[in-house]
Predict the 3D structure of the following.
Amino acid sequence: MRVADIRIDLADRLYLNEFVTDKSGVRTIEIPAASFIADEPSIFGVVNEDYVKRELEWYKSTSLNVNDIPGKVPEIWKQVADKDGIINSNYGWCIWAPENFKQYESCLAELIANQYSRRAVMIYTRPTMHTDAFHNGRSDFMCTNTVQYMIRNNRMHCLVMMRSNDVVFGYRNDRAWQLHVLNLLIDDYNRLSKSNVQVGNIHWSVGSLHVYERHFELIHNYRNYAQ
């Protein structure tokens, strides 16, 4: 499956009124155990390139404080942060921070040691997330579980495994981040191994891929256009 197939699936579920109620009480359209190639930057709507750039700068800083996001802090980050602005989900911290075992460096070293390795995995979440998610009043249970990198036929692919993913805002921003890391890893790998590996596919697997009720209009618009 590809992004185009996901659009059709979500539109069909909305047409059939297959709603799932979120913890906040709002309706969603959900695809459980979704798996597809993330071959487009957006499933519905348009990527906010300015925000993607600002979020990337924050990720690069590895700061766990949402107040360090350049420009205006999005409301969603304020809502999930604790009273001091601290969260869990700075993805740059997850892969680069020494206190989280410099996973980017470990994956790069693994791929250089064994081009066909199956062990180049960056682990984003952790067993303590069940309590870390709510520490000090925050509400931030990490959405990404792991990302695995594999080189096959001179292309580096990544396999993104997610617990939960909002189709509209979540997918757009997360996909931009994963593409950035994939390109960075390829550049570093090629430089150090004197190779010419190319960009492969981003495989997207999600426990719950969903659209919130406030964004149903995007699906209606797509369905009307497609007809």
Remarks:
- Helices lie at 3-15, 49-61, 75-80, 91-96, 103-113, 129-132, 169-193, 216-226.
- The mean pLDDT is 97.
- The CA atoms of residues 112 and 193 lie 6 Å apart.
- DSSP finds eight helices and six strands in the chain.
